[in-house]
Amino acid sequence: MDSTTACLDFAAIGHQDSWKNITRFVNGLRKPGQERLSDDTVKNIFAFLPPTEVFKVNVRSVTGATINGVYVETFIDPDKLDARFGRHNLAKVLEALNHVEKMGSKVATLGGFTSIVLEGNLDLLQQRRTSLTTGNTLTAAFIVKGVEEAAELVGIDLQAANLLIIGATGDIGSACATYFAGRVEKLLLCARKQLPLQELVLSLSKKQVSVHGSTNIAEFSRRADVIISVASSAGIRLPKLKSGVLICDAGYPKNLEQSLDDSLDGHLFHGGMGQVSGGFSFSPDYSSSIYEYPAPFTIHGCILEAMILAFEQRWENYSSGKGKITTEKMEEIYSLSLKHGITIAPFFDSAGCWAPLKKLYA
Ligand SMILES: NC(=O)c1ccc[n+]([C@@H]2O[C@H](COP(=O)([O-])OP(=O)(O)OC[C@H]3O[C@@H](n4cnc5c(N)ncnc54)[C@H](OP(=O)(O)O)[C@@H]3O)[C@@H](O)[C@H]2O)c1
Prior knowledge:
- This protein is α/β, with parallel strands linked by helices.
- The protein has two domains: 5-137 and 274-344, no CATH class; 142-271, Rossmann fold.
- The chain contains eleven helices and 17 strands.
- It has helices at 19-29, 39-46, 86-102, 113-116, 136-154, 171-180, 194-205, 217-221, 301-311, 327-339, 358-361, and strands at 10-14, 52-60, 66-73, 107-110, 131-133, 162-166, 186-190, 211-214, 226-229, 245-249, 266-270, 273-276, 280-283, 298-300, 342-344, 348-349, 352-353.
- Bound molecules: NADP nicotinamide-adenine-dinucleotide phosphate.
- Residues 112-113, 115-116, 135-136, 139, 166-173, 190-193, 230-233, 236, 250-252, 272-273, 300-302, 322 line the site of NADP nicotinamide-adenine-dinucleotide phosphate.
């Protein structure tokens, strides 16, 4: 163990969500002068690579505190994210967890799919010396606060709006539904499985909230003023949309953006992202090939949750299980996040920052 890993505060375990990103990622790890690997070569070797520590990161809070972390890549194949490959992917995640535990990390977060593969069931792993979190509480908080801020910017009155949540029965989706119950005109909830959807609609209706559920997205998409998509599937098609619709696409791989054509008459942003105003530095510095976003110091909410727990020295399994995220916990982690200067990231889509906002965030 070297001097940096001896004081390792947090670890982030993650995966890449598209071959385009993976090719950039793998080539970014190659030394200067080494030949650039082709897309086909990368595809052939990628899934055989063991979970590996890729870089260390030093993060700065506006309070003056600093923490040290590490990013461990699982090398999960993005074409094999469905249930058929569950056992193989789970083995990769467990191997990555063993790795960060050996490195002495005090808390680890399971980014995106790496938590889905465990179905949020971190209880199985609770005997570990490293505390674990899915990071979903802060992700959900950044999504809802982002939607509130973006709605105000584009002139949508949420109290009079129909909000569609795609992936509403999931861990993050159900947290967003609970948060917005009573804050919007109507909640329109979507998922593929009927039974959990009915249960969610029933539990929210008890709170005198106007809520409807459907497994048919087309039924709801034409009525939605605002859409949050947090489904664990890419390429979801939205047949008809209202003019001026606000879309927060927060799932990985991106749920909606690729299937929407250029004629979208509305506003879309990648949700669940935060920005570290105190900044961070990578070692080695892969900032130009990995983790490159239109705005500086932008990171996923799930990874930021582990950083905040580390700043606060709260070595606990903060987000664990499914459907346990409360609005109170979202507010708690969000206010801790602000304390350390970590705010909602500037709104962007794959083309860059929202044009009208460029000046604001320049
Ligand atoms: N931005 C970030 O920082 C961040 C952080 C963590 C996670 N995420 C992403 O957020 C998403 C949700 O995570 P989670 O932990 O909440 O996952 P989860 O608990 O597995 O929930 C997924 C939800 O999506 C629904 N779903 C899946 N495919 C669908 C489809 N084709 N149409 C409609 N609904 C569909 C599922 O219900 P059915 O199976 O019944 O359809 C379920 O409601 C994932 O894509 C994850 O990668 C983003």
